[in-house]
Write a structure and sequence with these properties.
Blueprint (H helix, E strand, L loop, with lengths): L8 E5 L11 E7 L2 E8 L7 H4 L5 H9 L6 H16 L5 H29 L4 H21 L8 E2 L2 E2 L7 H23 L3 H7 L7 H6 L5 H4 L7 H4 L20 H25 L18 E9 L2 E9 L7 E5 L1 H5 L3 H5 L7 H8 L3 H5 L1
Antiparallel strand pairs: 1-2, 2-3, 4-5, 6-7, 7-8
Helix pairs in contact: 2-3, 3-4, 4-5, 4-11, 4-14, 5-6, 6-11, 11-14
């Protein structure tokens, strides 16, 4: 009897697959159950944001940033206005900076809750998904009150924020802090020691520190390798240098570390929010800004710590009220580059666990 003949098979994962978290297509070549090749196919959601910006005044660009990492729109808003303020050397009122910091860290918590819920759902666990969305809904409701939207917020403005927090809003944020701390413990007890979950993620999708740096990874994907780098600490912006918080880092660079760091980072965000709400000053929420915003001619780049890593905005200005050119450093797009290396040699059963842990948002991948 002759040897069993094996043939490689090409398999499409997406672009409609629910666990690709958006219109992302992954073309994998498998030999039996083993992945021998993996090609990422992006662009299904491409809207030309960078090119569109060339025909928009700076304030008009802000809603387009909402559609990048649409799970962290407040942070995207800030990245743009921060670069414009840096270029124009604008002073932002203290209360506006506090409100910005509060909503950005709340948005980071909401984004990480979405990750944990969706990731566990990808791996077959329904209950954590429902629990995570309960808490995220509280944040979404608070954002709805402060800016009138649940997903695309358009709250930041060059020189401050659109308007002040409504009466009682800061009290709701203050009450949210102890509630969220209890829920962190509940989520960790439910998931972190679960034997089935650990078998799916421990030692899977390992990234070394050298690989992370060579691929220009940032955010949790980088910190999971033990490399301590967070722009809120390493290159402080806003008011982050005035607050006491830690940067959690991993040691193994595997899927479990990336899950666990999301949980630990939310705890630190709650610490920041608690301190900010306790010390927020009174005063205006919008600085002295020209009615027609013109960035001085030149090239400007600033970056901040987005929910998924280093989010950078590069503006080339010719002194007019619209950018001559704008380029975005999107962490989801950069982090995605290592996916092929992580998948080759793995079994198909690990594909979704590895892809989910990289934590991409397709609006940010495609721009």
């Amino acid at each position: 009897m002759g040897a069993l003949r094996q043939e490689e098979m090409i398999l499409n994962v997406g672009p409609q697959h629910p666990s690709t978290h958006g219109v992302f297509r992954l073309v994998v070549t498998i030999d039996g159950e083993q992945i021998v090749e993996a090609d990422s196919v992006v662009g299904y959601l491409h809207r030309g944001t960078e090119k569109l910006a060339e025909d928009l005044q700076y304030t008009q660009i802000i809603p387009y940033t909402d559609r990048l990492d649409y799970l962290a729109s407040m942070i995207n808003n800030y990245a743009l206005v921060h670069t414009v303020e840096y270029a124009m050397d604008l002073e932002v009122p203290a209360r506006a900076e506090y409100l910005r910091l509060i909503v950005m860290e709340l948005n980071r918590i909401g984004s990480h809750l979405m990750f944990i819920g969706a990731y566990l759902l990808d791996l077959g666990a329904m209950s954590p998904f429902l629990y995570a969305f309960q808490e995220r809904e509280m944040i979404v409701q608070m954002f709805n009150e402060i800016c009138g939207a649940r997903l695309t917020y358009n709250y930041m403005r060059v020189g401050g924020v659109k308007w002040d927090a409504p009466p009682g809003w800061l009290d709701k944020v203050r009450d949210f802090v102890p509630h969220m701390r209890e829920r962190f413990k509940m989520l960790s007890d439910l998931v972190s020691g679960n034997e089935i979950f650990l078998n799916r993620v421990k030692g899977i999708g390992v990234i070394t520190q050298e690989e992370a740096l060579n691929y220009s990874l940032s955010g949790i994907n980088l910190r999971s390798t033990g490399f301590n780098f967070d722009l809120r600490k390493n290159r402080p912006y806003n008011l982050y240098d005035q607050f006491d918080f830690d940067i959690p880092v991993g040691s193994n660079g595997d899927c479990f570390d990336r899950y666990y760091l999301h949980l630990r980072e939310m705890e630190q965000s709650v610490r920041i929010v608690e301190q900010a709400v306790a010390s927020i000053p009174d005063g205006p929420v919008l600085g002295k800004v020209p009615k027609l915003i013109r960035v001085p001619a030149g090239e400007y780049y600033t970056s901040i710590e987005g929910a998924r890593g280093e989010l950078g905005v590069y503006i080339v200005s010719d002194g007019k009220d619209k950018p001559y050119r704008m380029k975005l450093r999107r962490p989801s797009f950069v982090n995605l580059q290592i996916l092929r290396k992580l998948l080759i040699g793995q079994s198909m059963s690990n594909l979704i666990a590895i892809l989910g842990a990289v934590d991409i948002v397709l609006g940010e991948v495609d721009a």
